[in-house]
Amino acid sequence: MTESQYINVTPHPRILGVLGDIEFSHWQCLAELIDNSFDEFQAAGGTVDRPSVAVSLPPANSQRATAEIKVQDNGRGMSLEAVTNAISAGWTSNGRHGSLGLFGMGFNISTARLGRRTTVRTSRAGDPDWIEVTLDLARIANSSKYQAPYRLVPKANHDEHGTTVTISELKQEQYATLCRPQTQTVIREKLGDVYSYLLAEKGFLLTLNGKKVRPRLPCVWDEKRTVTRQGVEIHAVQRIDRTLSPKKACMACGHWSTADAEHCEECGQGRLELRERKIWGWIGIQRYLHRTDYGLDFLRNGRKIMLKDKRVFYWEDEDGIAEAELEYPIDSGAVQMGRIVGEIHCDHVTPNYQKTAFEFETAEWRQVLREVRGTSPLRPKIAKSLGLPENRSPLALLYAGFRRQDPGLNYLIPGDGRNALHETAAKWAGLMRMGGYEYQTDEVWYRAAYQHDNPIVADPQPENDDILPGFGAGLLDPDDEPEGGTVPGAAGTTTAGQEPPEDEVAPAETLDQRLQRYRDNADPIVDLTGPYYLEELGRVDLTAWAVRGQGLVTKDERPAPVIVSMVRAPHLDVFVDTGHSLFREHGADMRDLALVEVAEFMRVRANIVSMPLSEIVAQLKSHTSSPRLTPAATAEESERLLEQVRMAMVAPVSANPAVHWLLLTKDERADAERRFAVEAGGASPWNDAISSGEFIRYVPASAVIRIIQDSPETFLDGCVFKRGYIALSDPGARALVVERLINPLGDLALLEQHRPRLDVEELARIRISCRLIARDLADNT
């Protein structure tokens, strides 16, 4: 038999230069170097005083010939053997498990992509010298060996320690991008997101060009906030803490073998280490909705590998044959927005070499998904139709409690009594992340959700207590006159028959005391509160107050329905007297008048009185979350409310679905079936929807109105609408109750079904109809 022969497959040293062609974004290149430092901090176990990494990028006024990129840490440093291993391509002092820096290849890719020359300077405390190793890619490429020179540099202080990586001879395209201030800002924000856990929870310090990288903290509702669904209390944050059975990790290929294995079940090598495995973290409800800024972060050893990932919101059967189906968000109209977020730590799952995703086909990753979202669809009816058990996973709980986006406390959505404040809530999140003190807790968002359910309106007209009109409340029988000859509480007396002492004079109220009295008797108008910036007039941070039971006066003691006061620039308070006749009797809009006073204040402050006041008000209103009186916005609100009505009607219709089904015309039944086919996705048969009463969710709005008119006793008295009906015995009174409900519903139906051309007055009428229906919906809807 011919004896085996061998060929030399050692790659040419030019391979190091080719590594720079592998696609890595700028922040990823820096992250590879930061990972090595953070690995060292975690391995040190708290022996470093304040674990710090300083990243330096070339400034805008630098020259490429002398520009450098530096990543410096104060870790324990390395020996010559350790630094040799750390920078060797394809080999590393880090194992496949337990480190951020997975393999030396990442170091070589990132440095080769940024520049042509890399210097590593490192030393341990107590060592007399710094070790400096230079990787010159051009010189190595012209050599036949993988060799890099090093030198020993005496230390001025033997206690110094740490590692510095310096990249020079930067590539033109990399230098041109990295020296831009905007690029550096983007990188700083990205690193603050990727390393948020290590920066916030572990106390690591990361700076970029001397500026601290701030962790991007989650903006979620407090864990104590709850909603109740079918008698189950659901917290806004769900904790996950699952300890898995230990397994042996292969240090060669990364495969997990059983705890009693002596050799890797995948590659056969014996470099196995018994490791603990755990899936832990949390998922919760963000305080604001967004089109893209939601989803789960998956972390490995404290670094986010996948950010805002949304694959957990898709249901896919175990065999993977059917196409994955999106389950969240699906209830937010034409523009889908979500708010479920979370941080899931899964240190035992292997990421790809770019650290942008995990190995999705592994059993370890599939187990992580099962812990978070279970194996059944999140939608109970879909699961039941497929013969699968009800999903009780943490994600399924949040889905059941918070899938809808109706404003108010029922779903923890900020509102202003008319509409949801999605844009405003997102702005508050920005202020929270900028460090705004009042936005660090969820109180501002909670007040807005509460205020939607309990809107601020003008005080009601006082009841006329006159016994006979024109004679007043003081018409008494002479025999009933109290002793002392006066009515208790009349002006000029304290208690009956006693004059106030002449020498007691109440101290004058200061301006600060008066303003505090207003605040003590006020509720914040959350949809007006926030920062406002106009280019010509500057900035104010506005807090709006709806004051009750206190007459407002200006600084010169003039009574007024609205006043403004700037106690400390740029913080401006605007106070609105909800009991003033301007609002109570004349129906003026409190928010509009508040903005008029703010506009006047800003105009006078900037000494630009020639600028039209109405133009300033228009600019201020564009900063608020006030709903636009446009056909599209009004139609969207109408559709949202009608969807709420339909959803609430499912339960009463299901008690006798056949009766209500027979009320539909042939065309209405066809329309309902077509809408069911589009929206339900064929998950269950149409006949099942008819027999269960679910069909009501898909019928035209005109049919909804006719069904309510046919049997109002089924839907009123707190079932779908608050209005009382059954207790009324007079047929005329009952007819009036139904008519007052059907009229505004008809306006909503008109806009949903026909989208007619409407003028401003007609749109205003439909907006009022929306408010009336929203106010009339039963609490349980």
Distance from first to last alpha carbon: 84 Å
Shape: globular
The level 1 CATH classification of the largest domain is: Alpha Beta
Assign the CATH superfamily of the largest domain.
Answer: Histidine kinase-like ATPase, C-terminal domain
Helix-and-strand structural type: alpha+beta
Layout of secondary structure:
Blueprint: H1 15-18, H2 26-44, E1 52-56, E2 69-73, H3 80-86, H4 104-114, E3 115-123, E4 129-136, H5 137-141, E5 150-154, E6 162-170, H6 172-178, H7 181-194, H8 196-201, E7 205-208, E8 211-212, E9 226-229, E10 232-235, E11 237-250, E12 256-257, E13 272-290, E14 295-300, E15 303-309, E16 314-315, E17 325-326, E18 338-345, H9 363-373, H10 380-385, H11 394-402, H12 422-433, H13 443-453, H14 511-520, E19 522-524, E20 530-534, E21 538-547, E22 562-568, E23 571-577, H15 581-584, H16 590-605, H17 613-623, H18 631-654, H19 657-661, H20 666-679, H21 686-692, H22 701-710, H23 712-715, H24 731-754, H25 760-776
Parallel strand pairs: 1-7, 14-18, 21-23
Antiparallel strand pairs: 1-2, 2-6, 3-4, 3-6, 4-5, 7-8, 9-10, 11-12, 11-13, 13-18, 14-15, 16-17, 19-21, 20-21, 22-23
Helix pairs in contact: 2-4, 16-17, 18-24, 18-25, 22-24, 24-25
Task: Outline the structure in words.
The protein has 781 residues and is of the alpha+beta class. The protein has four domains: 15-212, Heat Shock Protein 90 (2-Layer Sandwich); 229-402, Ribosomal Protein S5, domain 2 (2-Layer Sandwich), CATH 3.30.230; 456-460 and 511-623, no CATH class; 631-776, no CATH class. Helices cover 34% and strands 19% of the residues. The chain has 25 helices and 23 strands. Strands 5-4-3-6-2-1-7-8 form an eight-stranded mixed sheet. A six-stranded mixed sheet has the order 12-11-13-18-14-15. Strands 19, 20, 21, 22 and 23 form a five-stranded mixed sheet that branches. Helix 18 packs across helix 24. The chain starts with 14 loop residues before the first helix and ends in a 5-residue tail after the last helix. Residues 89-95 and 464-497 have low confidence and may be disordered.
